[in-house]
Give the backbone structure.
Amino acid sequence: MFSLTIRRHFMIAHSLPREVFGPAQALHGATFVAEVTFRRRALSKDAIVLDIGAAGGIIEAVLAGLNYKNLDEHPDFAGKLSTTEALAEYIAQTVAGKLKDSDDGRELAGIDVTLRENPDAWATYALDLSA
Ligand SMILES: Nc1nc2c(c(=O)[nH]1)N=C([C@H](O)[C@H](O)COP(=O)(O)OP(=O)(O)OP(=O)(O)O)CN2
């Protein structure tokens, strides 16, 4: 299995209105580092998983929908908790949606998103695809 990982960061505001989250029940900001890993069983005819520039562009397009947003007001998170874990799943699914109809996208075995909310805490969502 081959993998290619691209890293970007984005900033959001949100609240997590459940007792378990303590002070984070209030509106607060976060800067996340997103590491998006594309997995592929065999390399393309160009000997790559995906073109780095193309992959970076897709990730930037997805993160642009979150960057500088208050997720409490974001329609995709209405009635949902925007935890690090949930955001990782959202990014993986949205990136997969953008790739699904492309030749490269059909060859992917998976997309994993690791979101680092600080140097000591991160979450990963692993999306397995059919290839
Ligand atoms: N599993 C998760 N736990 C928490 C998340 C999360 O996304 N997934 N998010 C938060 C807060 O949004 C914030 O990032 C940290 O809040 P904070 O209360 O400052 O941090 P801790 O929970 O680490 O520390 P406390 O000792 O409980 O204050 C919180 N948890």
